[in-house]
Amino acid sequence: MGRLIIVGGRVIDPSQQVDRVTNLLIEDGKIVGLDAVPRGDEETINATGKIVCPGLIDMHVHLREPGGEEDETIATGTLAALSGGFTTVACCPNTDPPIDTQAAVHFVFERAARADHCHVAVIACVSKNREGKELAEIGQLVEAGAVAFSDDGSPIANADLMRRAFQYCLMFDKPILSHAEIPELTAGGVMHEGLVSLILGLQGMPAAAEDAMVARDIALAESTGGRLHVMHVSTMGSVQAIRRAKARGVRVTAEVTPHHFTLTDEALRSFDSNFKVNPPLRSREHVDALIEGLVDGTIDVIASDHAPHAKEKKLQELDRAPFGVVGLETTLSLVIMRLIEPGHLTWSQAIEKMTVNPARILGLNKGTLAPGADADVTIIDPELRWQVEPEELLSKSKNTAFAGWHMKGRAVTVIVGGRVKFRR
Ligand code: DOR
Protein backbone atom coordinates (compact mmCIF):
# COMPACT_ATOMS: atom_id res chain seq x y z
CA MET A 1 0.00 0.00 0.00
CA GLY A 2 2.97 2.28 0.59
CA ARG A 3 3.29 5.72 2.12
CA LEU A 4 0.76 8.53 1.89
CA ILE A 5 1.31 11.97 3.36
CA ILE A 6 -1.36 14.62 3.86
CA VAL A 7 0.36 17.98 4.03
CA GLY A 8 -0.58 21.42 5.30
CA GLY A 9 -4.07 20.64 6.61
CA ARG A 10 -5.60 21.72 9.90
CA VAL A 11 -5.50 18.41 11.73
CA ILE A 12 -8.26 18.07 14.31
CA ASP A 13 -8.17 14.92 16.40
CA PRO A 14 -10.23 15.28 19.59
CA SER A 15 -8.99 11.89 20.83
CA GLN A 16 -5.52 13.46 21.25
CA GLN A 17 -6.61 17.07 21.81
CA VAL A 18 -4.89 18.02 18.56
CA ASP A 19 -5.94 21.07 16.54
CA ARG A 20 -3.09 22.50 14.49
CA VAL A 21 -1.78 22.83 10.95
CA THR A 22 0.59 19.94 10.32
CA ASN A 23 1.27 16.87 8.18
CA LEU A 24 -0.14 13.38 8.69
CA LEU A 25 1.76 10.31 7.54
CA ILE A 26 0.11 6.98 6.70
CA GLU A 27 1.96 3.78 5.91
CA ASP A 28 0.57 0.39 4.95
CA GLY A 29 -2.95 1.27 6.03
CA LYS A 30 -1.99 2.57 9.48
CA ILE A 31 -1.39 6.01 10.92
CA VAL A 32 2.33 6.65 11.47
CA GLY A 33 1.85 10.03 13.08
CA LEU A 34 1.63 13.79 12.89
CA ASP A 35 4.34 16.33 12.09
CA ALA A 36 5.98 14.02 9.53
CA VAL A 37 8.42 15.57 7.09
CA PRO A 38 7.91 14.44 3.47
CA ARG A 39 10.69 12.18 2.21
CA GLY A 40 9.69 12.78 -1.38
CA ASP A 41 8.80 9.23 -2.36
CA GLU A 42 5.31 9.14 -0.87
CA GLU A 43 1.95 9.84 -2.45
CA THR A 44 1.06 13.37 -1.37
CA ILE A 45 -2.29 15.03 -0.73
CA ASN A 46 -2.19 18.79 -0.35
CA ALA A 47 -4.72 19.71 2.35
CA THR A 48 -3.97 23.42 2.60
CA GLY A 49 -7.12 25.21 3.75
CA LYS A 50 -8.78 21.89 4.58
CA ILE A 51 -9.59 20.07 7.79
CA VAL A 52 -8.04 16.65 8.32
CA CYS A 53 -9.76 14.52 10.96
CA PRO A 54 -10.29 10.89 11.93
CA GLY A 55 -12.71 9.18 9.53
CA LEU A 56 -16.24 10.16 10.52
CA ILE A 57 -18.46 7.49 12.09
CA ASP A 58 -22.24 7.42 11.70
CA MET A 59 -23.67 5.07 14.31
CA HIS A 60 -27.27 5.15 13.06
CA VAL A 61 -27.78 4.18 9.43
CA HIS A 62 -30.40 2.07 7.65
CA LEU A 63 -28.80 0.20 4.77
CA ARG A 64 -32.05 -1.72 4.09
CA GLU A 65 -30.40 -4.87 2.80
CA PRO A 66 -31.64 -7.59 2.95
CA GLY A 67 -35.23 -7.07 1.91
CA GLY A 68 -35.41 -3.36 1.13
CA GLU A 69 -33.18 -3.19 -1.93
CA GLU A 70 -35.64 -0.87 -3.66
CA ASP A 71 -34.73 1.75 -1.00
CA GLU A 72 -30.99 1.16 -0.56
CA THR A 73 -28.39 -1.56 -0.77
CA ILE A 74 -25.27 -2.03 1.28
CA ALA A 75 -23.28 -0.99 -1.81
CA THR A 76 -25.23 2.22 -2.50
CA GLY A 77 -25.54 3.16 1.17
CA THR A 78 -21.85 2.78 1.87
CA LEU A 79 -21.00 4.83 -1.23
CA ALA A 80 -23.33 7.59 0.02
CA ALA A 81 -21.53 7.29 3.36
CA LEU A 82 -18.16 7.93 1.70
CA SER A 83 -19.58 10.95 -0.11
CA GLY A 84 -20.78 12.25 3.26
CA GLY A 85 -17.29 11.83 4.76
CA PHE A 86 -18.01 8.66 6.74
CA THR A 87 -15.48 5.85 6.92
CA THR A 88 -17.60 3.70 9.25
CA VAL A 89 -21.35 3.29 9.52
CA ALA A 90 -23.30 1.15 11.97
CA CYS A 91 -26.33 -0.37 10.29
CA CYS A 92 -29.69 -0.98 11.92
CA PRO A 93 -31.36 -4.40 12.01
CA ASN A 94 -34.86 -3.44 10.81
CA THR A 95 -34.32 -5.28 7.56
CA ASP A 96 -36.33 -8.15 6.07
CA PRO A 97 -35.48 -10.60 7.51
CA PRO A 98 -34.22 -8.64 10.51
CA ILE A 99 -30.62 -9.01 11.66
CA ASP A 100 -31.35 -11.42 14.49
CA THR A 101 -29.21 -14.42 13.51
CA GLN A 102 -25.52 -15.07 13.01
CA ALA A 103 -26.21 -15.73 9.32
CA ALA A 104 -27.76 -12.29 8.93
CA VAL A 105 -24.75 -10.60 10.56
CA HIS A 106 -22.39 -12.55 8.29
CA PHE A 107 -24.50 -11.56 5.28
CA VAL A 108 -24.03 -7.84 6.03
CA PHE A 109 -20.28 -8.24 6.51
CA GLU A 110 -20.00 -10.20 3.29
CA ARG A 111 -21.98 -7.61 1.27
CA ALA A 112 -20.00 -4.76 2.82
CA ALA A 113 -16.71 -6.47 1.97
CA ARG A 114 -17.88 -7.02 -1.59
CA ALA A 115 -18.88 -3.33 -1.94
CA ASP A 116 -15.49 -2.36 -0.47
CA HIS A 117 -16.45 1.24 0.29
CA CYS A 118 -16.43 1.98 4.03
CA HIS A 119 -16.45 -0.11 7.19
CA VAL A 120 -19.82 -1.43 8.34
CA ALA A 121 -20.50 -2.26 11.98
CA VAL A 122 -23.62 -4.29 12.70
CA ILE A 123 -26.30 -3.47 15.23
CA ALA A 124 -28.35 -6.62 15.85
CA CYS A 125 -31.90 -7.08 17.10
CA VAL A 126 -32.74 -7.10 20.79
CA SER A 127 -35.75 -9.33 20.15
CA LYS A 128 -36.29 -12.21 17.76
CA ASN A 129 -37.84 -10.94 14.53
CA ARG A 130 -38.07 -7.50 16.22
CA GLU A 131 -41.35 -8.64 17.71
CA GLY A 132 -40.57 -7.46 21.21
CA LYS A 133 -41.53 -10.82 22.68
CA GLU A 134 -38.47 -13.01 23.05
CA LEU A 135 -34.81 -12.03 23.39
CA ALA A 136 -32.64 -12.66 20.34
CA GLU A 137 -29.59 -14.89 20.82
CA ILE A 138 -27.49 -12.02 22.12
CA GLY A 139 -24.39 -14.12 22.86
CA GLN A 140 -24.36 -15.70 19.42
CA LEU A 141 -24.86 -12.33 17.76
CA VAL A 142 -21.92 -10.88 19.70
CA GLU A 143 -19.86 -13.87 18.61
CA ALA A 144 -20.82 -13.09 14.99
CA GLY A 145 -19.58 -9.51 15.42
CA ALA A 146 -22.61 -7.41 16.46
CA VAL A 147 -21.44 -4.29 18.32
CA ALA A 148 -24.75 -3.18 19.84
CA PHE A 149 -28.41 -4.17 20.10
CA SER A 150 -31.57 -2.35 19.06
CA ASP A 151 -35.07 -2.92 17.72
CA ASP A 152 -34.89 0.54 16.12
CA GLY A 153 -37.86 1.51 14.05
CA SER A 154 -39.95 0.05 16.84
CA PRO A 155 -39.69 0.69 20.56
CA ILE A 156 -39.33 -2.19 23.02
CA ALA A 157 -42.67 -1.83 24.73
CA ASN A 158 -42.24 -4.78 27.10
CA ALA A 159 -40.33 -3.48 30.13
CA ASP A 160 -39.48 -6.98 31.36
CA LEU A 161 -37.87 -7.83 28.02
CA MET A 162 -35.95 -4.56 28.09
CA ARG A 163 -34.72 -5.29 31.63
CA ARG A 164 -33.53 -8.74 30.65
CA ALA A 165 -31.88 -7.30 27.54
CA PHE A 166 -29.89 -4.90 29.73
CA GLN A 167 -28.84 -7.76 32.01
CA TYR A 168 -27.82 -9.94 29.08
CA CYS A 169 -25.96 -7.24 27.18
CA LEU A 170 -24.09 -6.33 30.35
CA MET A 171 -22.35 -9.71 30.22
CA PHE A 172 -20.86 -8.71 26.88
CA ASP A 173 -20.45 -5.01 27.72
CA LYS A 174 -22.68 -4.08 24.77
CA PRO A 175 -25.04 -1.09 24.73
CA ILE A 176 -28.74 -1.17 23.99
CA LEU A 177 -29.66 1.50 21.46
CA SER A 178 -33.17 2.56 22.35
CA HIS A 179 -35.78 3.93 20.01
CA ALA A 180 -37.65 5.46 22.95
CA GLU A 181 -41.36 5.80 22.32
CA ILE A 182 -44.50 4.67 24.14
CA PRO A 183 -46.40 3.14 21.21
CA GLU A 184 -49.86 3.65 22.70
CA LEU A 185 -49.20 7.40 22.78
CA THR A 186 -48.01 7.71 19.19
CA ALA A 187 -50.30 5.27 17.34
CA GLY A 188 -51.66 6.88 14.18
CA GLY A 189 -49.56 10.03 14.64
CA VAL A 190 -47.73 11.63 11.74
CA MET A 191 -46.08 14.66 13.38
CA HIS A 192 -45.28 16.37 16.68
CA GLU A 193 -48.36 17.05 18.78
CA GLY A 194 -48.62 20.80 19.25
CA LEU A 195 -50.01 23.99 17.82
CA VAL A 196 -49.00 23.15 14.23
CA SER A 197 -50.61 19.68 14.31
CA LEU A 198 -53.74 21.28 15.73
CA ILE A 199 -53.86 23.91 12.97
CA LEU A 200 -53.19 21.34 10.24
CA GLY A 201 -55.63 18.85 11.69
CA LEU A 202 -53.01 16.11 11.66
CA GLN A 203 -52.70 13.50 14.37
CA GLY A 204 -49.87 14.30 16.74
CA MET A 205 -47.21 12.34 18.59
CA PRO A 206 -46.75 13.93 22.02
CA ALA A 207 -43.31 14.68 23.42
CA ALA A 208 -44.42 12.78 26.52
CA ALA A 209 -44.32 9.54 24.49
CA GLU A 210 -40.55 9.91 24.25
CA ASP A 211 -40.02 11.47 27.69
CA ALA A 212 -41.80 8.60 29.43
CA MET A 213 -39.90 5.87 27.57
CA VAL A 214 -36.54 7.56 28.14
CA ALA A 215 -37.39 7.74 31.86
CA ARG A 216 -38.25 4.02 31.88
CA ASP A 217 -35.09 3.08 30.03
CA ILE A 218 -32.93 5.16 32.35
CA ALA A 219 -34.57 3.49 35.37
CA LEU A 220 -33.88 0.04 33.91
CA ALA A 221 -30.29 0.91 32.98
CA GLU A 222 -29.72 2.32 36.44
CA SER A 223 -31.14 -0.66 38.27
CA THR A 224 -29.35 -3.26 36.14
CA GLY A 225 -26.07 -1.38 35.61
CA GLY A 226 -26.63 -1.84 31.87
CA ARG A 227 -25.55 0.51 29.10
CA LEU A 228 -28.26 2.62 27.47
CA HIS A 229 -27.80 4.73 24.34
CA VAL A 230 -30.82 6.85 23.45
CA MET A 231 -31.20 7.14 19.69
CA HIS A 232 -32.50 10.22 17.87
CA VAL A 233 -33.31 12.27 20.98
CA SER A 234 -35.94 14.85 20.06
CA THR A 235 -37.47 16.33 23.21
CA MET A 236 -36.52 18.74 25.95
CA GLY A 237 -37.70 16.22 28.54
CA SER A 238 -35.34 13.55 27.20
CA VAL A 239 -32.38 15.93 27.29
CA GLN A 240 -33.17 16.90 30.89
CA ALA A 241 -33.62 13.28 31.99
CA ILE A 242 -30.39 12.15 30.31
CA ARG A 243 -28.51 15.10 31.84
CA ARG A 244 -29.73 14.19 35.33
CA ALA A 245 -29.02 10.49 34.82
CA LYS A 246 -25.46 11.18 33.67
CA ALA A 247 -24.91 13.39 36.72
CA ARG A 248 -25.73 10.48 39.02
CA GLY A 249 -23.54 8.07 37.12
CA VAL A 250 -26.05 6.09 35.06
CA ARG A 251 -24.40 4.52 32.01
CA VAL A 252 -26.37 6.47 29.44
CA THR A 253 -25.30 8.13 26.20
CA ALA A 254 -27.36 9.85 23.53
CA GLU A 255 -27.44 11.00 19.94
CA VAL A 256 -29.26 13.65 17.94
CA THR A 257 -29.86 13.85 14.19
CA PRO A 258 -29.26 16.86 11.94
CA HIS A 259 -32.94 17.02 10.97
CA HIS A 260 -33.96 17.27 14.62
CA PHE A 261 -31.50 20.06 15.46
CA THR A 262 -32.16 21.94 12.19
CA LEU A 263 -35.90 21.76 11.44
CA THR A 264 -39.11 22.28 13.39
CA ASP A 265 -42.65 20.98 13.02
CA GLU A 266 -43.42 24.12 11.00
CA ALA A 267 -41.95 22.21 8.02
CA LEU A 268 -45.05 19.98 7.99
CA ARG A 269 -47.16 22.93 6.82
CA SER A 270 -45.99 21.86 3.35
CA PHE A 271 -47.58 18.42 3.85
CA ASP A 272 -44.36 17.08 2.29
CA SER A 273 -43.69 13.53 3.47
CA ASN A 274 -39.96 14.27 3.38
CA PHE A 275 -40.54 15.94 6.73
CA LYS A 276 -42.22 12.87 8.20
CA VAL A 277 -39.76 11.24 10.54
CA ASN A 278 -39.96 9.26 13.73
CA PRO A 279 -39.49 10.76 16.25
CA PRO A 280 -41.16 13.75 14.64
CA LEU A 281 -39.67 17.19 14.04
CA ARG A 282 -40.48 19.10 17.21
CA SER A 283 -41.23 22.72 18.08
CA ARG A 284 -38.59 25.41 18.68
CA GLU A 285 -38.18 24.93 22.44
CA HIS A 286 -37.31 21.27 21.90
CA VAL A 287 -34.80 22.13 19.16
CA ASP A 288 -33.17 24.69 21.46
CA ALA A 289 -32.94 22.06 24.20
CA LEU A 290 -31.25 19.62 21.81
CA ILE A 291 -28.65 22.25 20.96
CA GLU A 292 -28.10 22.95 24.68
CA GLY A 293 -27.64 19.20 25.17
CA LEU A 294 -25.05 19.11 22.42
CA VAL A 295 -23.24 22.09 23.91
CA ASP A 296 -23.02 20.81 27.50
CA GLY A 297 -22.15 17.24 26.48
CA THR A 298 -25.46 15.64 27.49
CA ILE A 299 -25.69 14.53 23.87
CA ASP A 300 -22.56 12.62 22.93
CA VAL A 301 -23.14 11.83 19.27
CA ILE A 302 -24.45 13.27 16.02
CA ALA A 303 -25.88 10.51 13.83
CA SER A 304 -27.90 10.75 10.63
CA ASP A 305 -30.62 8.11 11.11
CA HIS A 306 -30.19 7.76 7.34
CA ALA A 307 -33.57 6.21 6.43
CA PRO A 308 -33.92 5.77 2.67
CA HIS A 309 -37.37 5.13 1.21
CA ALA A 310 -38.14 4.72 -2.49
CA LYS A 311 -39.97 7.57 -4.21
CA GLU A 312 -43.22 5.68 -4.67
CA LYS A 313 -43.44 5.06 -0.93
CA LYS A 314 -42.77 8.66 0.05
CA LEU A 315 -45.18 9.94 -2.62
CA GLN A 316 -48.14 8.50 -0.72
CA GLU A 317 -50.39 10.70 1.42
CA LEU A 318 -48.76 11.92 4.62
CA ASP A 319 -50.53 9.40 6.84
CA ARG A 320 -49.52 6.47 4.61
CA ALA A 321 -45.94 7.45 3.72
CA PRO A 322 -43.22 5.80 5.81
CA PHE A 323 -41.21 7.71 8.42
CA GLY A 324 -37.65 8.68 7.58
CA VAL A 325 -35.24 10.80 5.56
CA VAL A 326 -31.84 10.18 4.00
CA GLY A 327 -29.03 11.91 5.84
CA LEU A 328 -25.58 10.53 5.12
CA GLU A 329 -24.75 13.14 2.49
CA THR A 330 -26.08 16.23 4.29
CA THR A 331 -25.09 15.58 7.92
CA LEU A 332 -21.62 17.12 7.81
CA SER A 333 -22.76 20.33 6.10
CA LEU A 334 -25.59 20.80 8.61
CA VAL A 335 -23.20 20.28 11.51
CA ILE A 336 -20.96 22.97 10.04
CA MET A 337 -23.76 25.40 9.19
CA ARG A 338 -26.04 24.91 12.18
CA LEU A 339 -23.67 24.03 15.02
CA ILE A 340 -20.14 25.21 14.25
CA GLU A 341 -20.71 28.47 12.34
CA PRO A 342 -23.22 29.91 14.85
CA GLY A 343 -20.69 29.09 17.62
CA HIS A 344 -22.61 26.34 19.45
CA LEU A 345 -19.79 23.82 19.01
CA THR A 346 -16.12 24.18 18.17
CA TRP A 347 -14.79 22.10 15.29
CA SER A 348 -13.15 19.83 17.80
CA GLN A 349 -16.37 19.32 19.79
CA ALA A 350 -18.34 18.58 16.63
CA ILE A 351 -15.76 16.12 15.31
CA GLU A 352 -15.62 14.44 18.72
CA LYS A 353 -19.35 13.66 18.40
CA MET A 354 -18.76 12.09 14.99
CA THR A 355 -15.56 10.14 15.70
CA VAL A 356 -14.23 9.20 19.12
CA ASN A 357 -17.59 9.28 20.94
CA PRO A 358 -19.47 6.88 18.65
CA ALA A 359 -16.35 4.69 18.50
CA ARG A 360 -16.26 4.49 22.30
CA ILE A 361 -19.97 3.69 22.59
CA LEU A 362 -19.77 0.92 20.00
CA GLY A 363 -16.42 -0.37 21.23
CA LEU A 364 -14.78 0.27 17.86
CA ASN A 365 -11.04 0.67 17.76
CA LYS A 366 -11.47 3.77 15.58
CA GLY A 367 -12.09 7.50 15.67
CA THR A 368 -8.48 8.52 16.26
CA LEU A 369 -5.36 9.55 14.36
CA ALA A 370 -3.08 8.10 17.05
CA PRO A 371 -0.02 6.21 15.79
CA GLY A 372 -0.88 2.61 14.90
CA ALA A 373 -4.60 3.29 14.35
CA ASP A 374 -6.29 2.19 11.14
CA ALA A 375 -5.75 4.96 8.60
CA ASP A 376 -9.38 6.10 8.28
CA VAL A 377 -9.19 9.81 7.52
CA THR A 378 -11.67 12.42 6.30
CA ILE A 379 -10.52 15.62 4.61
CA ILE A 380 -13.12 18.39 4.70
CA ASP A 381 -13.28 21.59 2.69
CA PRO A 382 -15.09 23.87 5.14
CA GLU A 383 -15.69 26.51 2.48
CA LEU A 384 -17.01 24.32 -0.33
CA ARG A 385 -20.46 25.50 -1.35
CA TRP A 386 -22.98 23.18 -2.92
CA GLN A 387 -26.70 22.82 -3.41
CA VAL A 388 -28.68 19.73 -2.48
CA GLU A 389 -30.06 18.30 -5.72
CA PRO A 390 -31.87 15.13 -4.63
CA GLU A 391 -31.20 13.35 -7.93
CA GLU A 392 -27.46 13.90 -7.48
CA LEU A 393 -27.33 12.15 -4.10
CA LEU A 394 -25.55 8.81 -4.27
CA SER A 395 -28.02 7.12 -1.96
CA LYS A 396 -30.47 5.01 -3.93
CA SER A 397 -33.34 6.96 -2.37
CA LYS A 398 -33.66 10.71 -2.66
CA ASN A 399 -35.96 11.45 0.28
CA THR A 400 -33.99 14.36 1.69
CA ALA A 401 -35.57 17.00 3.92
CA PHE A 402 -33.09 19.51 2.51
CA ALA A 403 -33.84 19.56 -1.23
CA GLY A 404 -32.60 22.80 -2.78
CA TRP A 405 -30.73 23.91 0.35
CA HIS A 406 -27.52 25.85 -0.16
CA MET A 407 -24.88 24.07 1.87
CA LYS A 408 -21.41 24.99 3.04
CA GLY A 409 -18.65 22.50 3.80
CA ARG A 410 -18.23 19.00 2.46
CA ALA A 411 -15.86 16.05 2.57
CA VAL A 412 -13.48 16.16 -0.38
CA THR A 413 -11.21 13.16 0.23
CA VAL A 414 -12.06 10.06 2.23
CA ILE A 415 -9.42 7.50 3.13
CA VAL A 416 -10.34 4.06 4.44
CA GLY A 417 -7.61 1.77 5.73
CA GLY A 418 -4.95 3.89 4.01
CA ARG A 419 -6.64 3.82 0.60
CA VAL A 420 -8.27 6.85 -0.99
CA LYS A 421 -11.82 5.62 -1.45
CA PHE A 422 -13.50 8.85 -2.41
CA ARG A 423 -12.35 12.04 -4.06
CA ARG A 424 -14.68 14.86 -4.97
O1 DOR B 1 -37.79 8.06 10.72
C1 DOR B 1 -37.42 6.92 10.98
N1 DOR B 1 -37.17 6.01 10.03
N2 DOR B 1 -37.29 6.56 12.27
C2 DOR B 1 -37.02 5.31 12.65
O2 DOR B 1 -36.90 5.06 13.81
C3 DOR B 1 -36.89 4.24 11.63
C4 DOR B 1 -36.51 4.77 10.32
C5 DOR B 1 -36.67 3.80 9.19
O3 DOR B 1 -36.25 2.65 9.33
O4 DOR B 1 -37.17 4.20 8.14
Distance between the termini: 21 Å
The proportion of residues in beta strands is 15-25%
Mean pLDDT: 98
Oligomer: single chain
Number of strands: 18
Give a structural overview:
α1 (74-83) links the parallel β6 and β7 (86-91). The chain has helices spanning 74-83, 102-115, 138-144, 159-171, 183-186, 195-200, 207-224, 236-247, 258-262, 284-296, 311-314, 331-340, 347-352, 356-362, and strands at 3-13, 18-27, 30-34, 43-46, 51-54, 56-61, 86-91, 119-124, 146-149, 176-178, 191-192, 204-205, 228-230, 252-256, 301-302, 377-387, 406-416, 419-423. With 424 residues, the protein is of the alpha/beta class. It is globular. The strands form four sheets. Strands 1, 2, 3, 4, 5, 16, 17 and 18 form an eight-stranded mixed β-sheet that branches. A four-stranded parallel β-sheet has the order 6-7-8-9, with helices on both faces. It contains 14 helices and 18 strands. Residues 62, 94, 152-153, 179, 277-278, 305, 307, 322-324 line the site of (4S)-2,6-dioxohexahydropyrimidine-4-carboxylic acid.
Task: Write a brief caption for the model.
The chain is an alpha/beta fold and 424 residues long. The chain has 14 helices and 18 strands.
Summary keywords:
424 residues; alpha/beta; 8-stranded mixed beta sheet; 4-stranded parallel beta sheet; 14 helices; 18 strands; binds (4S)-2,6-dioxohexahydropyrimidine-4-carboxylic acid
